[in-house]
Specification:
By secondary structure, the protein is an alpha+beta fold. The protein is built from 15 helices and 22 strands. Helix 5 packs antiparallel against helix 6. The two termini are 34 Å apart.
Length: 664
Amino acid sequence: MMSKLERRMPAYPLFVKDPYFSIWSPADEINGANTVYWHGEEKPIHGYLSIDGEKYCFLGLDESVPKLQQVGVEVKALSTLYHFRKDDFLLTIEFLSPLLLNDLETFSCPVCFLAYDFASEKKHSVQIEIIIDQKICYNTCFNEERVEECRGNRFELEGFEAVSVGLNRQMPLSHAFDEVGADWGYYYLAGKNCEILKNEKYLFLKAGDGAEDAKRLSGHFLLAFDDIVSIYYFGEFLKGYYFRNGKTIFDALRESHGRFPEIKAKCDEADLKLEEYAQAYGEEYLFVLRAAYRQTLGAHKLVQDGSGRLLLLSKECNSDGCIATVDITYPSAPLFLLERPELVQGMLQPIFDFARMPVWKYDFAPHDVGIYPYCLGQYYAVKSDASKQLDLEVWDWKKQTSLPFYHQFPETVEIYDMNKQMPVEESGNMLIVSYLTALYTKDTAILRANFDLLSKWAGFLVEHGLVPCNQLCTDDFSGHLDKNANLAIKAIIGIKAYAMIAEMLGKEETAKECLEIARDYAKKWMELYFNGEHSLLALDEEGTFSLKYNLAVDDLIGEPLFARDFKERELDHYLTKKNRYGIPLDSRNTYTKTDWLLWVACLTENKEKRKEVIGMVHAFLCETADRVPFSDWIDTVTGEHLVFRNRTVQGGLFMPILVDNRKK
């Protein structure tokens, strides 16, 4: 049942597989609100239990039917369980999203489960059913009254049945957008008995099970999404990884149905792994990790390109919807480095590929490679120039649209606004994560193949990193900064990472030269940005501070450049600025980033101080009034979330484990 710490989460993950298959409950009682897509659009799914002819609702909002009393909820790594009680019986339902990093076939198989277990002291006539509205298969976020003609089908399979729904007119990949689902593909509901229901306007999928004179009824339903085509990758249309060799959605349904006990056991093992991770920091940290795990994994799509390379593509949910964003990969990497580091190579590869295209002619790394699900060249910082008849941007996020194929543009076209680029940020990110990926995989192939690009980006940091000019960085919610102290740390550690890359590849002279530069810059940084008590937000900005979360990776990359006592003093200073829900990101505002909070927790080796920071994130999860998936941008005073939700950066909450494991 529910531990005393698991009071509630802002929103509960139910069916979570990828950015277009992500359904949540925004209420503590699952029958107190309709289920929603990750960004809040209603996708009504209802569940009913009938006992001796009396019908009760246990899932979704239905005021015409009595609610079954929920007595508990548990959130684990890959499952969410609800417990109901009435008279002489108990009902447990479990939503299972098998995002198994140690089993990529299952990880990428687009099937989730709803398991049920009814148990009573007496015999009853029992019926359980799930009903899904056709709105699951198209967007209604801009028009709640939207009704589309849909096609429904019923299939008899080996030992179970399935029903499907999808738009009559299928247009795969018909938009690139942020807060929407796919307006294409087919959803499948499977179980013991299935049928399609209709009224004047809508189709509904129904699956059910039942028994007469029963004390026990157990089983599972399956919900699956066949997106037909998953990703456009620089000219290639790619299916999801599971479908790469010709498998179909019916293979997915059959395999998942037959393997349910095995899959459930593996999901339980994943949760035990989180318990091991959290052991040193207690139940609050376990709660935080469970809240982060499924969300982080489920905002990615795994595919394989024509040359056989694995690509793990993130969607930058609620912040433009960009795909393969570098400053999303950087904070999310700790989880993947711990669990499946070769997948980080699949995050980096799109950036390397685009950086070699003629339209990208810069000495620094790009920010992204498009807007999900299109890898077509960096979208962020694209400009429009009417005088040159260039119309390149997405101007209105309320209209579904697609982007130009930037990657095909010739070198002669100027399409980027330099004021919106993040040159130091993304170059440092790519160097640091590239090194860590090779370190954890013990595979230097991606480094060898892209050493020329890595060298170019390292050179940029040597020239521009110690005192960065006025430029955008990932945390500039209060505006651009000139001479940003935290950005300078990233540049310095990026140079050190490049030195370690060169050493890995046997380039000893380059390694020695760059390591000396990094050491020299670290000393100069202390002279420039440290006032004797704590570091500043930016050069000559007395009376300021900022979270130097980039220091967390210093201990992961060779011999640290910055002293332990300095890092300890930094965290001690940050703790004097704390509020109920965290430490402000910097002295300009009261908001913070939850991922970076746990990175700065790593500046100390004192477990009690780390637990103090973890406690702030835990308090936010339990007390925020905003019922959205785990936000990483929050107000430290009010506990409100600020725009962001369902972002993969919460993989960064695993940083204390990564740091501890590296020391071992």
